[in-house]
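Continuing the series of single-chain predictions for the mutant panel. This is the parent chain; the variants come on the following pages.
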Amino acid sequence: MTAQPERPEEVLFVLPRQEKQAKKEPAGEKADTAKSRRPAKRRPADRLPVARVIVDTPLPHLDRYFDYRVPADMDEAAVPGCRVKVRFNGRLLAGFLAERVESSEFAGRLAYLETVVSPEPVLTPEILALSRAVADRYAGTLSDVLRLAVPPRHARVEKETAREEQAREEDVAGVEPADEDPPEAPEHPEVAPSPDDGAPVQETVEAAVLEVDPGPWDAYPEGPAFIEALHGGIAARAVWNALPGTDWTDAIAVAAEAALGAGRGTVVVLPDGRDVAAVDAALTRHLGEGRHVALTADLGPAKRYRSWLSVLRGHVQVVVGTRAAVFAPVRDLGLVVLWDDGDDVHVDPHAPYPHARTVLAMRAHRGNAAALIGGHTRTTDAQLLVESGWARPLVADRATLRSRAPQIRPAGDDRELARDGAARSARMPSLALRAAREASRSGPVLFQVPRRGYLNTLACAGCRAPARCDACHGPLAVRGSHAMPSCGWCGRVAGQWACPECGMTRMRAVVVGARRTAEELGRSFPSLTVRTSGREEVLSEVPNKPSLVVATPGAEPAVSGGGYAAAVLLDGWALLNRADLRASEETLRRWLNASALVRPGGAVVVSADSSLPVVQSLVRWDPGGFAERELAERRELGFPPAVSMASITGSPEHLRELLDQIELPGRAELLGPVPVGSERADDGTNRTERALLRVPRGAIGDLTRALKTAASARSARRDEHLAQVRVDPLHVL
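Parent structure:
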């Protein structure tokens, strides 16, 4: 390198302040100051000096561990599972320290860890291995899964709980608690031994017979044996068809109590906060205060992180929550429970879009834990678990079911059609009105409406063609009782609308929402209170007195101290006519969930054709038989879940480019691409297309590896136009 000449004294671009300071400071002092400002030379830790870090980056080609040196001053704090920050490609990024090793395979010079954010080992080895398996199963990245598995840090809560824990330990030792913060969070203790390591399983089960009260499980022939197996530490797995009523919450609490009696933990995953609150109350009744925690988004970041830390540190072993609870770091997990696995909310909306059922099944299989997948219905995915032998059915006998179930009648059966010829086409047939009028004398009556809002869809009153906006061709709807028809896309009021097909200016309602239904019922039953429960305001409970409740599916409130006197399930055609592979399955799930809230022997009227198989399954209350037939039909046609599928969605040019780069497995089949969505380009073509990849279930691993390889290659080329990849998509039609 060429030596630089010394600066002449008369140079003009030196700042006066620097010249003045240079004159005041002697040369020796100036050299000492510069030396003191240099960072101290770092040296690596003496023990396991290499840290393998999971850097928080969503790029698929960077989905691997990166090695960093552990400086000596971070040796104690840099524990496996802690949060760190590292220099990566010139930026300061967050990450997790996966493990520490003696040496690295990287031949170059390793950079040092920048900082240890917290010594708390928030990423346990079990959750790390599970997250890696989930990422591979869904063709995603490990960092994406860890964003779902580990909540964001709340520093104040972390310090508070660590200080409380230190104070508790010092109180036990008879020492006054210290005021200063502890140097580091406590590490995980050894996992408690499994019952299999001690007494034989048979002896444990025999002891469980004397100690565990099966409670609600007595109503199921195999119920007491299932509870005994849980108390004995046996990995029993069941697909549970719950009886009508609300005692399913106590049944889950008894199962968690049995697993806890064996010294093992439980994770309970539910669709929404109302179900979490119900199971939370049941667990408190059976386990007592402080034996479990609830993890929901409604708690707020501080309280939720505090509860999560109590699970991480082993203070509680029972967790109940929504889909994020699938990754709760419960120690010695012995039971996973999933309620209502057919609900769409169990699919995480963030990449890689895992389903809680799949994650819990993987967790139970990897950890030799029991599993209970339950609901009032049975999905085809759960039926596949039964037919594969992974789980056994847990159902009540027909006599018990008949004594607990309501009486279900379709409004379109032959006897009712003979009495009321318009019952097949009427939205509110006379049978429904008669049942509601009689039942409302003794208690509340539930009306289930598939859609919220007022008049969500309009059509021409003459030719029945859909009513669309003259400007953007969006669907027209009426938002309120005094509102004019307006476009659902651009909001333009259609005051002078005329049908382009026949010229008629009058419109009719195609789909009636919950608010319009409540208005109609208020006029038909003027002496009764009409309540609505939907997206804007979801009621958790209604009083057990005469009233009418209009609710959308999933928002039906419970009745305090009892059940509904009757239920009317309206607009069955709107659910069954959806262009969805799961339309019949989802319709039966919504109907059964609503009917389960009705008193034993109460009336349930469904406005649907009685000849449909799904209606017959509802009348007989036979979700298992329906799931068995539905799965057989899908297996014959090659539809999920009999086969595995992946969808790729994106712009036409980028979608085809990605498809050309995927090396598909030998038995893979490409379906499409086909246009999806309503957004169009300037030339009139669809902006978005979708392709489906179909493989046998045993080849899903080969397919996800091929998808991941192609996505990594595009990511390495810095191609920002990545297509969306979903494995096991909910909607394939």
